[in-house]
Fold this sequence. Notes:
Layout: E1 11-13, E2 19-26, H1 30-38, H2 40-46, E3 52-59, E4 66-73, E5 78-89, E6 93-100, E7 108-117, E8 120-128, H3 132-139, H4 143-160
Helix pairs in contact: 1-4, 2-4
Amino acid sequence: METTTSSRTATVTLPTDEQILITREFDAPKHLVYKAWTTPELVTRWWSGRRGKMTIAEIDLRVGGMWRYVMIAEGGLEVAFHGEYREIVPNERIVMTDVYEAMPDGEALVTVTFTENDGRTVLTLLMQLASKEARDMVINSGMEAGVQESWNRLEQVAVSLR
């Protein structure tokens, strides 16, 4: 088991047939969690979890700007995602599209919110998909285990910035 700063885990719920909601508390203030979420060299330290090695983390953090993450997963499979930033409120909220490049027609709209309470951050990620089938495909992809790993590392990176 990987060492984590807290025993927290992400909670994954399905508010509607087209939505996935992921929530987790981090033992770091929101400006550090936000920095770890939006800085390419920091994203490379957490995004892939233990599932591979990131080869690309491009972030053009502005409305209309693009982002793209690529990793080589175990077994050599390249896994790539990209999207466009639609709304940015620094340290508070990011709205962006998210496309898994192996399924380019499956664009999701993702809203990430950073809320601080007593120096701890609650991060919520709401993924709006086109259909129940698309949502179920994401859920059945192993996404939840990947989120647990990567968000454990996200917390470690955010705490390390103190």
